[in-house]
Amino acid sequence: MLTVDRVTVTYDRTPAVRDASLEIADGEVLALLGPSGSGKSTLLRAIAGLEPATGAVRWDGDDLAGVPVHRRGFGLVFQDGQLFPHRDVAGNIAFGPRMQGMPAGDRDRRVAELLELVGLAGYERRQVTELSGGEAQRVALARALAPRPRLLLLDEPLSGLDAELRESLALDLVGVLRRAKATTLLVTHDQEEAFTLADRLAVLDEGRIRQSGDVVDVWRAPADERVARFLGVTTVVSGEVADGQLRCAFGVADVPWALAGPVTVGLRPHALRVASTGVPGEVVERARRRDHTRVTVDVSETVPDASTVDAVATMADGVRPGEEVRLRLDPGGVAIVG
Amino acid sequence: MDRTVARAVRGLSRGGRRGPGAGRARGAGVVALAALPIAFLGVLFAWPVVAILRLGVTDGEVSRALAQAQTWDLAAFTLGQAAASTAVAVLAGMPVAFLLARVRLRGAGWVRTFLLVPFVLPTVVVGLAFKALWPGGGVATIVLANAFFNVAVVARTVGGLWAHLDRRAEDAARSLGASPWQAFRTVTLPALAPALASSAAVVFLFCSTSFGVVLMLGGGRYRTLETEIYLRTVELLDLSGAAALSLVQLAAVVLALVVGGVARRRRERAAPLRAPVTTARRPAGREWWVVGAALTVVAGLLVPILALVVRSLSTRDGWGFDGYRALAGSGDGALSVTGWEAALNSLRTAFDATVLAMIVGVLAAVALVAAGRARGRAARLAGETLDAALMLPLGVSAVTVGFGYLVTLDALPGDLRTSPMLVPLAQALVVVPLVIRMVLPVLRSVDDRLRQAAATLGAAPVRVWWTVDVPLAARSLAAAAAFGYVVALGEFGATSFLARPEAPTLPVAINELISRPGELNTQLAYAACTLLMLVTAGVAAVIDRLRAPHVGEF
Question: Which residues form a coiled coil (chain A) (predicted)?
Answer without folding.
Answer: none
